[in-house]
Design goal:
Radius of gyration: 16 Å
Shape: elongated
Largest sheet: none
Protein name: Hemerythrin domain-containing protein
InterPro entries: Hemerythrin-like
Pfam family, one: Hemerythrin
Order of helices and strands: HHHHHH
Organism: Kaistella daneshvariae
Number of strands: 0
Strand content: under 5%
Length: 148
């Protein structure tokens, strides 16, 4: 899918989020302990998801406005992720719920929110987004490769 240059980095960041979803799916399939998967979720959240959510909320969500139904829902999901992380995970069902919501969230942004932003944003708004220059997310260094 061709993205406007202003959204390309956020789209790339989504790749890492989907990779997390795949890793968790593999971990659940292999019946890896919740504790092992939770450690990785917590690390990934701190290094990637938390700054990514903040970036979206501070930049691209403003284009449609915080009252836009899709933006409201996305921000509510961000809050749900924060709450899930703060509470922690004690069952594989909680990890699956987190994984499924994250995958849905990313796919909704890619398929609905980003195209709507591209359609509604002015050239000036897109230029402002380009100038924000947020850091590129990357895979966290982690020794417990539970998904293999």
């Amino acid at each position: 899918m061709k993205r406007h240059e202003a959204l390309v980095q956020l789209s790339r960041d989504h790749h890492f989020g989907l990779l997390l979803c795949w890793k968790l799916k593999e971990g659940l399939k292999r019946e890896i302990s919740v504790e092992r998967m939770e450690k990785y979720i917590q690390l990934f959240y701190q290094q990637n998801l938390k700054p990514h959510f903040a970036e979206e909320e501070e930049s691209i969500f403003k284009v449609l406005g915080y009252d836009h139904p899709m933006i409201k829902e996305a921000m509510e999901q961000h809050e749900t992720f924060h709450e899930m992380i703060d509470k922690g995970f004690s069952t594989s069902e909680e990890i699956e719920k987190f994984r499924a919501l994250l995958e849905l969230h990313i796919r909704t942004e890619e398929r609905q929110i980003f195209p709507e932003i591209e359609k509604q944003a002015t050239d000036e708004q897109l230029q402002n987004l380009l100038e924000m220059n947020y850091p590129e997310l990357k895979e966290p260094e982690y020794d417990d490769i539970f998904w293999k």
